[in-house]
Amino acid sequence: MSSNKCDAYNNPMLSLSIEDRVKALVHAICDDPDYTGYDTPIARQVVLTSVTPGRTEWEATVQPFMCNKSKNLHGGAACTLLDNLTSTALLTIAREGFLDGGHVSRTITMTYLRPVPVGTKVRMVCTAVSAGKRLAHCTGQIETMDGKLCVTMVHDKAVIPRPTNSKL
Q1: CA 121 to CA 63: how far, in whole Å?
Q2: What is the pLDDT of residues 89-129, one digit of tens each?
Q3: What are the residue boundaries of the Thioesterase domain, all occurrences included (predicted)?
Q4: How far apart are CA 121 and CA 146, in angstroms?
């Protein structure tokens, strides 16, 4: 990748459509040869199915490496999925001077309602509920394709302002 590439993870290119911003973020996690983080193999499983302002929807099939010994989606894998994907909901409402410099998890509350067996196709819905200058509040959920709710997340994030070029 070229050195002048947009760092979609920390510094989104706001001139892109909201769908292309979201795709660029996932690309930054999945396809950057200089990044092979914990979230990379899990993020490679998701397919974007819907983008609207404040909301993204995804689909994936639960793979064996995402599961615990009981062959159900591991709680940590579910959290990793929703942690990454709730950020995409914020990207859909970012604009110059607002949510344009990134954000980090402040608190995550997970609720596991039912097991998700290996091989299950799931839908993940992520919503930006509220966002301000310093904090953002998102929700995420994992449900089966027939609408059974399996996992919910409440995700609060600290907003990181984009650095300015001004001298102090």
Answers
A1: 10
A2: 999 999 988 988 888 999 999 999 999 999 999 999 999 99
A3: 72-150
A4: 10
Rounded to whole angstroms, the Cα distance separating 124 from 145 reads: 10
DSSP 87-150: HHHHHTT-BTTBS-S-EEEEEEEEEE-S--BTT-EEEEEEEEEEE-SSEEEEEEEEEETT--EE
Tell me the CATH number for domain 18-159.
3.10.129.10
The predicted model scores a pTM of 0.88
DSSP three-state, residue 25 = helix
Q: First-to-last CA distance in the chain?
A: 33
Cα separation of 21 and 63, whole Å? 26
Element (DSSP H or E) covering residue 28: helix 18-30
Q: CA-CA distance, 23 to 8, in Å (whole number)?
A: 9
- Torsions phi, psi for 61 (to 5 deg): -110, 130
